[in-house]
Amino acid sequence: MLVWFLPIARGMQNFKSYLLAMHIAGPKAVDFYLHWVTQFYRFLNKQPRDTVTQQEMDSSLKRLSKSRESWQVDQAAKAISLYQFFITKYSNANLHFLVPRNNYLWRYDFFRARYVLF
Q: pLDDT (tens digit, 9 = 90+) per residue, 42-75?
C-alpha cells in the first residue's frame, strides 16, 4: 500500500470492515475500493465525510475513463456509491462489532461457533 494512501485509509477503517463483513468485496479487492474512494475525494478536494453531487461523481468518472479500463471505472463507481451509502446509513452508528478487538476473541468466537454447528 502506498504511503500517501495510509492516512485516509485509517479514517475509513469502518468502511473497509463493512465491505469485508458484508462480503461486498474480497480481501484483495477491498484495498482497491478504498483507493477509488480516496482518489475521488482527492480529485474533488473534499473530505470523505463531505456530501457530493451526481455531477461531481460523473465528472470524476469521466476523467477516470480517459486513463483507465472500463472495468476499473465500473469498480470505482461501485466503490464511491457504496461509500456514499455507508456514510449516509452508518455515519452515526456504533460499528465496533465490525472491527476485531484482538485475535483471541476471534478465535474464541470461531471455536464457539464451530461447537454449536457440529
A: 999 988 888 889 999 999 999 999 999 999 999 9
Most confident of 25-29, 76-80, 110-114: 76-80
The span from the CA of 15 to the CA of 48, in Å, is 11
Whole-number Cα distances in Å, 40 to 44, 53, 62, 89, 117: 6, 12, 12, 20, 43
Distance CA 93, CA 53 (A): 23
Distance CA 103, CA 76 (A): 32
Q: Which of 37, 28, 29 has the alpha carbon at shortest distance from 8? A: 37
For the chain, the C-alpha Rg in angstroms (whole number) is 17
How much of the chain is in helix, strand and coil states, percent to nearest 5? 75, 0, 25
Give residue 95's pLDDT.
53
Those residues with Cβ within 8 angstroms of residue 83's Cβ, 6 or more apart along the chain or in another chain: 12, 15, 33, 37, 48
